[in-house]
Amino acid sequence: MNTENNKRAARNKIRKFVPSFLLQIWVILVVCVVLVSEFFWLPSSLESTLNQHINRFQFVLQVSSRLFAAQPSNIERDQLLTLLNENSEAQYWLEIVYAEEANLRLQAAANTELQLLLQPLSDSSLAYGLWFNPSELLLEQEALYRCFELILIAFVTFIIAIIWIRRCSFIASLKKLIKSAKSLEEGDFNTPFPKVNSHSGLVELFNTFEVSRKALSKSRSELLAQVDANKLSEQRLHDSQEVAKLGSWEWIVEEDTVWFSTSLEKILAIEKGSEHFGIKEFFQQVHPADRKTLLQSLAPKLQVGAIVSTDFRVSVEGDIKHVHLMADVKQQADGKLRLIGTCQDISERKDIESLLKKLSSAITASSSGVMITDVIGTIEYLNPKFTETTGYELEDLAGSASVILSRDCLPEGQYDEVWGDILSGKSWRGDLQNIRKDGSLFWSVVSISPINNEYSELTHFVIVCEDVSELKDAHAKMEQLALFDELTGLPNRRWLFRKLAELFRNDVMKYPAVVMLLDLDNFKAINDTQGHPAGDKLLIEVANRLKLSIPDEGFAARLGGDEFAILISPVKNVEQIENLAKQVLNDIARPFIINGSEIKISTSIGLAWLPKDGNMPDTILKHADLAMYQAKEMGRNQYRQFTEQLHDQLQRHIRFSRELPEALANGDFYLCFQPKVDLAAKKIIGVETLIRWKHPELGNISPFDFISIAEDSGFIVPLGNWVFAEACRQMKKLREMGYADLTCAINISLRQFSDPSLLGVIEKSVRDNGLKPQNLEVEITESLLMEDVDKAIMTLKKIQKLGISVAIDDFGTGYSSFSYLKNLPINTLKVDRCFIKDIPRSHEDMKITAAIISMAHSLNLKVVAEGIEVESQSEILLEQKCDIGQGYLFGKPMRLAELKQQLDQEEFLRQLEQG
Q: Is this structure's pTM higher than 0.90?
């Protein structure tokens, strides 16, 4: 015990002595480093550094003095001096000066911190001086040596620390060695001896102990490894059987004992813990319908070397499993037969096989042709429908490239697109023209789908083709029907648009074309008088005449109703088109024999040129329509060509259509009244109401410029309603002024006349202003009556029932039959100004006017002559017993205040005559 204590005490003394000794060594070394550095290295280094800077400064002074001397003026010397001093900090001096040498020396004597280097100038009392601070120059060098001292001290410290660490490592290794030796002594052969540094003196000792440990534990380790390997093999076998859904079994025939792996328990649904499991129990797990078959497979093969392979089913909780059994018959050393085999759950495989059979049957029985190719388009499979459709058998095409995927079948520009899609995994669908074995072509809807394998690699394409030739033919026939007019057999508007679009896609500048738009004049009157069947026959005859008139480079189309169009392309010259237009006018003007009756009709034609008059089908037809309407306005039965003036009219039409509602809302419309005079009494008996528009930018706009636009846009209805209401308000004012017996004629437009609310507007306007209905007169045009005679008669009777008289305006310019007049509920005829303006020069107009007046009086109708401008016209009309006159002779359209003045003046003159 005392010996152990003495050893422990000795170890403690050594442990305390070693750190103290190392500390003393470290202190001595550090002191030596500091003394050598401070008293030997540092002074000599600082002195050397100072001398180097002074030599460089003197060199700078010499060079600069020569440069100063070379400068021609003091200004340039000062600039050079400034330039040198700008870099003084980088060069470690403070300043270079140029002054009297004596002054510089006095300054140097007075300044103890700074030093001055002088460079006198020859033949002058002046000198250059360079001021510098020696302390700052040496400060950096001194700091550098201080860092060097610290590095030396750190190095010494590092060496001492290494020694200390090595000592501690040696002691720790000894402790580990002792600890491992004790473990080995106690029988622990698994704990290895610690490793030591190869330079350590304990290496041999450690190696000896380690060899002994390994020699003792080798046998034990080998045994344990063998046990673990066996367990691992068993686990791997079990896991692999689980993954493969496979179980192993063994049957000793004479003993009737069956062994099976745990994985087979799940496959055959064997209950765990069965005390005895023989072949009978094995067969109990088999589906009843398969037991006999399985027994018949096993019984004949119970002989050495036989191999059994069969499938059977197992019923597990209502589900059916498919099992594949394989076995090998062997003989043991004692002569007993032993069957070693496996059972594998193949339910998924059976399901896949069943699905594949269904898919194969579906493809075989499919009503669409199916082709399967590899990734480069080589044909591998054709279903019967594909063979039926094309006539190709698989033997004809197997191994060859599919035409469907070739440039021969795919349209130009689509080949790269299709292959790009299907190679990137996308499906493609479209219409393609395929070829049969006999060389005939047919249309098919083709769907190409890429197929990937289990590695997501593209391997095949499935191409499904459906023959749509009959559908294409039916579609083409339907399209043909859709492109031609059913009544006349001419191409329709859609065909015309298609042809125009084709022309615009081509170089139409090289080959100009022309569109002629035709509209039959007053065709509705023929429909109304002769009936719609007669009108249809007339349209057919017109179409036939157009077909005969048009040259080979053109065609006629029916756009709808009584509107036709002619397209000529290419046009040889303008004269050709003018002659054609005249020919068409003459052909249409020739009498038609319909149902045994002769019918005469004319047409108006508008021409628009491609590409001059538009670059789109809509634009061309719109411009041709404008020209056609101009032809109608010019008197019908003529042709007109589109001009820029018509384009301006179109722009004005668009602008006015937009501005008319704003003008009504802003109060920009006002009414004027033109007097109507009793020709016999020379007295104003009424007025005609006329609307005017005072545009904020364009000034006064004539009704001729906006009424037709209001008609086309439908705005004529609210505008006409305002005119009627405003006219009634103005007449109320006139009545209050003392002129209650005057009648007021108000024009009604076609759309307003057809508006269901017309009668309500009239009644309300009369009632709200307290007017007598007999003081109002409604004027309608002759062409308005001809739109729908029966409906017009009904509406006019309702107006007359209100007590308001009815007048036909512009009589003689339309195509109505005189026989209609006796049936029309009207009170007045207004003879158009075109029959008045040439009286008395035109005897023909005088005869026509006299006939109209006589006919009207025979029907108890009053007659108003419009456009009377001279007294002679008034006298002649009075001789013809015309009742009322209207025109500039009696007064222009005027505002209500002017009208009152004229009435007052007339009353004044009448009173003078009377008295």
A: no
